[in-house]
Give the backbone structure.
Amino acid sequence: MPMQFRQHSIGLRVEIDFFPTKYGGEAQAGKNVSLRKIFRKRTLDELLIFLRPLECFCEWIFCRRAFFLASPPTLSGGRREGRGWGGKATPTVGQSTVASRCVWTLFAMDFLFLLLFFVLCSLAVIALLLGARDKGAEAPGPRPWPLIGCLPLLAGHDTPFEAFSALARRYGAVYALRLGAVSCLVVSGPQLIRQVLLSNAFGGRPDFLRFHALFGGDRDNSLALCDWSDLQRTRRRIARLHCSPRFASAHHDRLDEACASEAEALLSQLLPPPGAARDVRLTKPLLLAACANVFTRYMCTRRFDYEDAEFRDIVRRFDLIFWDINQGYAVDFLPWLAPLYQSHLRRLSGHASHIRQFILKHIVEPRRGDKQPPPPSYDFTEALLSHLEQSPDESHLSWEHVLFELEDFLGGHSAIGNLLMLALASAAQHPQVAVRIRAEADEATGGGKRALRLSDRMPFVEATVLETLRTASSPIVPHVATEDTTVSGYTVSKGTVVFLNNYELNRSEELWQAPMDFRPERFLSADGTGLTKPNHFLPFGTGRRTCIGQRLVHSCSFVLLATLLQHFDVSADEAICRVPACVALPPDTFTLRLTPRSHNPIYCQ
């Protein structure tokens, strides 16, 4: 980058001759980057802005010198004759000597100023280059529209993640996207997604108005939708023992009993009495109620009757919230639309308020007056209350936090109920899957002589649950950068919402064979006796914000799915409509026909 200084009669002009280059290409992370590529256009503009005051300063120096040489002062008592140095009069000896010294002094000063100028320019260049390397380049992406940003680009697709995948083919695995007033980054590819999930710089959650409405006006009351904090760490530590129980522990035995007992209760509800029509209808509300009872049995030591109207209403409200969280609304990215969404936000807040009143009335209040010490294998509710009473100051927990945390975890049953409906629908569409699950269940229970347990070895059942998660491709909750950082060499500013495109991970032909087909065997080992999960399969995320309830999802789904398919043939009389990239089904969705097996194991008991 040659730099030339040309002296003119009015001062110094700085001319910088840059090598011609194109700014379209971006440097790849981890590779050597030449000076030309690091010197992006923005960096050059910043350098020129920095040099402009120095140029003006140098112009002032040379103008001062030119003026002095044209009009030297009168020294040693002499006076100026004629028109100056170019006139006919000759200066006196004293004038000539002093003027010569002044000229040499000014040239020496000019040299010092030029030296200082070069030093400052060099420091500026080094600082800008180091800054460009530290900050990284700006991620590529489409140009946003005023006010609405790139929201129109998401139209024409069944799900935003299909649009994200289409844009990734144009801009690469990492690209910037402005959605309304929100700066976003879309990340694709297993290595990059895992990098974001494992980084502590992305511990935040989006600040959506809907999230605040669901948790009493403050989304930090939620365990899944809050930013990472000491309170978050405390709540996860308390919950981890109960949500991820170790095999053969007291908590694992309680979870096993809750799953097996509720599976038998569901069978009793579904099996027709003698002489009645054999076929029965399985609706999502009934399946959700069974999942909810597994959670209340295990976490609260409390079960509710399927015909309890208040219980059914709460299960319905949980499902409405789960469906809403899995949707996207314009107000999430255009907060100035909030006045148009007030009724929707009040409705969400009302659902959450009813749920908390139910939990307080039927679960928390009966425990608060109990002064008996907790049993050795006390439930999750008792753990929260005991922790609150023993160290309220150290834990930062309040009664409200206990209530919100119970609401958060009990609401997990909605995800399992929706997942089970999808798994059963897939079994109806692929009868060979149901036949294989039934064979495993019969072998594990000796032909139905006992109830299924978590300890039963049924790898194909587990593979079916995983394949249902893959085909549903439920999105990972977006993360938010809590500090300025980089991803793949691109700058990510604090507050940027990061979408992790696991839809592309689960549907990529480069990562899966026949990804559009439902094939549980893809998760089986070569001999079919074990389970295997590839590293690019991340249905629950990873890192410190991984889904803490994934063990509950596997356990409940494992027992209920195998139990239903062991006792019933499943079919569909209506179209099965799924929502792409979403595990949630509409609250009023399809029903399934269940036909008891002619040699039903339960009849043989």
